[in-house]
Design goal:
Strand content: over 45%
Number of helices: 1
Strand order of the largest sheet: 2-5-3-7-9-11-13-12-10-8-6
Largest sheet: 11 strands, parallel, barrel
Radius of gyration: 24 Å
């Protein structure tokens, strides 16, 4: 009897699966024109676009197709609510499922919002396209990529594990922390940069502000700085690394573990620390 009871209990949690599961949400929500969208999700293709609208359009579609045998159960839903002029979007998944067979997931999140809003996003295995956002942007992402275009805010904070960051434009302050991903930024005018990389490369094209502060650290990756305007003092600490530069520099020191450069114009402070990587600095 014990054996039969145990088998019956196990069979209750085992399902033969050949079905589709869909989640749809298409709704508009209020937000302050300078409010913040806070969002958490996983495994989604996410698009956030700033427009002239006054509210936020949220369009979420998720379809899971499975064939085979599944063990357990999972409940998926997304909570969206307004909070003091901000909008909160939270993915909620309860339970767990193991399966033998085929599983395909289609999951998209499309958001249109006022241009002046800010973003605080936490994701796992998501990919992001963010366009025309004028407020601050903070991204905390595991294993996903982000592409930012025409984002005119002045405060950026990126914390990535294995994903890549691409950005066109940007000003003010930016903080980057990345483990194994690459960072590529063009047409920027940052006044303050803090970039810490492990195995990835960081490529930044930016002007340098007088009295601005710029710090780069890389363990096994490369640092590539293209200075579009301005200059200052460059202090580079390196170990088993290659350092190259082009432009109108005065070389104060160039030895095995330290390189000091000074451009003829500008008063920015640029510090770099790199192990087992490469440094390239170009000025125009």
């Amino acid at each position: 009897m014990k054996i039969l009871f145990t088998l019956a209990t196990l069979l209750i949690g085992i399902h033969s699966v050949a079905q589709d599961s869909e989640f749809k949400l298409n709704k508009n929500y209020p937000i302050s024109v300078t409010g913040t969208i806070e969002m958490s999700s996983s495994d989604a293709e996410v698009t956030v676009k700033g427009t002239d609208r006054k509210d936020v359009s949220v369009n979420i579609y998720r379809k899971v197709t499975v064939k085979g045998v599944s063990f357990g159960d999972r409940d998926f839903k997304v909570e969206v609510f307004e909070d003091n002029g901000n909008l909160i979007i939270k993915e909620r998944t309860r339970g767990s499922v193991s399966m033998m067979g085929y599983r395909r997931e289609e999951y998209t999140i499309d958001i249109e919002a006022p241009r002046g809003i800010s973003l605080v996003i936490e994701g796992d295995d998501d990919d992001y396209l963010i366009q025309n956002i004028g407020g601050s942007i903070a991204l905390d992402i595991d294993d996903g990529d982000a592409d930012l275009r025409n984002c005119s805010g002045s405060d950026f904070d990126f914390d990535f594990d294995d994903g890549d960051i691409r950005m066109d434009g940007g000003k003010g302050k930016i903080r980057i922390k990345s483990d194994d991903g690459d960072v590529s930024i063009r047409n920027a005018s940052f006044t303050d940069v803090e970039a810490s990389m492990d195995d990835g490369d960081v490529e930044i094209e930016t002007s340098l502000a007088d009295n601005g502060n710029y710090f780069f650290r890389s363990s096994d990756g490369g640092i590539y700085l293209d200075v579009s305007k301005g200059g200052g003092e460059f202090l580079i600490y390196h170990d088993d690394s290659r350092v190259s530069f082009s432009g109108d520099f005065e070389v104060d020191r160039d030895d095995e573990d330290e390189t000091r450069l000074r451009s003829r114009t500008g008063s920015a402070k640029i510090k770099m620390r790199v192990d087992d990587g490469r440094v390239e600095i170009n000025t125009r």
